[in-house]
């Protein structure tokens, strides 16, 4: 018994997340406790993938995995505790964030994603629910500064490094243009997600909304951004331009995480 168990932080379909305290150090952690049988083999695969990726990363804005305990029936992940919960809940209670508050969040997020992409890791499931808030301060202008952590790497993939020619190739005469230019745009899906998140932080609603999935996909493929909500009157043109760069339909012309970090709106 190294940890004393405290309150329940969340409940998944096959496990719980509990706040715990390390008995020797007094430090608080979050333990994700998963029942192997309930989870089933496919969910356990996702969990193992998450563990293997978290063991390879170390970044201020990515959730830290402290240790893993395994028993025949269960798996326990000891993770950094994020006292303030999901970013989504904070957004809902506030309605929307100011431009400065949003800038601070997006800068942290972009820095985490640039770090992952440099390691050839694509998150693939970035959304408000997967961004946790470790702590929050209020500055002299009464604006929130949130310390965010990206979590939930169950769907993340690590791309095999190395040149495309060694891995895919065969004969170049049959190759599609996007393969030849060796621009693997798969990681650009994360950038699109950052755009959706930024839009939601600024105005409180998603950029593309439809009651039917088919209609939604159509809107997403068109990618027409609307800034009609009156909230947008208080948002700078520079911020809107960043949104247009993040939500470019063609991944080849979408801004990269590094370019986002260098963008004047962020810096």
Automatic annotation (TrEMBL):
The keyword Transmembrane helix does not apply. GO terms for molecular function: ATP binding; protein serine/threonine kinase activity. The keyword Nucleotide-binding applies. PROSITE patterns: PROTEIN_KINASE_ATP (PS00107), PROTEIN_KINASE_DOM (PS50011), PROTEIN_KINASE_ST (PS00108). Keywords: ATP-binding, Kinase, Nucleotide-binding, Serine/threonine-protein kinase, Transferase. InterPro entries: Kinase-like_dom_sf, Prot_kinase_dom, Protein_kinase_ATP_BS, Ser/Thr_kinase_AS. It holds the Pfam family Pkinase. Residues 3-266 form the Protein kinase domain. ATP binds at residue 33. Belongs to the protein kinase superfamily. PANTHER family: SERINE/THREONINE-PROTEIN KINASE. This is STK33 kinase. It comes from Dromaius novaehollandiae. The lineage of its organism: Eukaryota, Metazoa, Chordata, Craniata, Vertebrata. The gene is Stk33.
